[in-house]
Amino acid sequence: MLVLSSPSGAGKTTISRALLQGDKNLTMSVSVTTRPMRPGEVDGKDYHFIDEAVFQAMVERRELLEHAHVFNRHYGTPRGPVEQALALGTDMLFDIDWQGTQQLKQNEVTGGDLVSVFILPPSIDVLEDRLRRRAQDPDEVVRSRMAKAADEMSHYSEYSYVIVNDDVERSVAEVRAILTAERLRRPRQIGLHEFVESLKPNA
Amino acid sequence: MLVLSSPSGAGKTTISRALLQGDKNLTMSVSVTTRPMRPGEVDGKDYHFIDEAVFQAMVERRELLEHAHVFNRHYGTPRGPVEQALALGTDMLFDIDWQGTQQLKQNEVTGGDLVSVFILPPSIDVLEDRLRRRAQDPDEVVRSRMAKAADEMSHYSEYSYVIVNDDVERSVAEVRAILTAERLRRPRQIGLHEFVESLKPNA
């Protein structure tokens, strides 16, 4: 369970895509959202786009591991794919904000076994530039997004790892290193005790 | 502070050498020992070879961060180079056994901030083969080394990471990933708070 969080404009989506391409053992958790689809987005890949009624029904049926309310829209993580990944022993990548991360940590399905990574932009100028180019929105909207980014960034200290994304390739390599290292942690290695027993003379 | 431990014959020395070659920010802690130099070993590189009187004097002057007694010989880690590495912010690699690791964890100089990795051989046959070829010793000595290896391996559960060394190149890449990841841990990143403040609007 690998959680990547960052303010919009820090490059998280680019990093996530590169990670998924290079790692067959890693699948993406696709969130549900009530916000409208943007040009270029694909339903079921970027998000599952659903309406308010369906969202509320999922919340009531406890089909979401976490959900958040941002800019008057709802976002949530479906429970099914996470349970499947846990059962299969594959890793799952979550692109969620600090609120979602906190809820996921406390959720009984994950058992709190999350690896959390916060991605920061290299400077405030780069952040503003990315938010401006991407959304093609008026100054007022950009300012509001900057304020939201600042709010998100104030939660970096709740994460285990922090990456400053001044070079996408290096950042991807760094997340890969974190994944490799976390898989080598002793408590995550299934069957290790039996293996060590087999290494002893007269085993 | 990266500690690599393993039974003799698991390939730790080969892995350590490859790590040091590829990483200028990493220096090796050279232990002192009272055992005789073996053919091919270099004083000051493989070990500092010292006599019993010098060893006891170092212990009394508290110049060793940890020391152990194995096969009737003494081994120890000099304090000076570790303090220097900590002051310079460089990483230090320790090739020590489980006893040394426990002492280092409790030492006030390191503050317990160790990354500990245990390296296992891929099978008992490979382990025995390596111990036999290397030492060119009679069966009795090999059996005694196997027993020592089994004793060392029984302490794998005191380590944060475990690597099964069935391919040296992959094992080196895995230790490198652990180093990269551990350097990205939030509490180890100096100046991070000030950097995040600089990313906020009107900072």
Per DSSP, the total helix count of chain A is 8
Q: Element order, helices and strands of chain A?
A: EHEEEHEEHEHEHHEHH
What's the CATH architecture name of chain A? 3-Layer(aba) Sandwich
- DSSP summary, beta strand count of chain A: 9
Helix content of chain A: 40-55%
Which protein chains are joined by the largest interface, and how many residues does each one contribute? Answer: A-B, 42 and 41 residues
Spatial strand arrangement across the major sheet of chain A: 2-7-1-8-9
* Mean of pLDDT of chain A: 91
Written description of the protein model:
Two copies of one chain form a homodimer. Chain A contains eight helices and nine strands. By secondary structure, chain A is an alpha/beta fold. Chain A has a single domain (about 1-185), classed as P-loop containing nucleotide triphosphate hydrolases (Rossmann fold, 3-Layer(aba) Sandwich). In chain A, a hairpin with a 2-residue loop joins strand 5 (about 65-70) and strand 6 (about 75-80). Chain A starts with a strand and ends in a 5-residue tail after the last helix.
Task: Please give a quick description of this structure.
The first copy, chain A, contains 8 helices and 9 strands. Chain A has 203 residues and is α/β, with parallel strands linked by helices. Chain A has a 5-stranded parallel β-sheet with strand order 2-7-1-8-9, sandwiched between helices. A 4-stranded mixed β-sheet of chain A has the order 4-3-6-5.
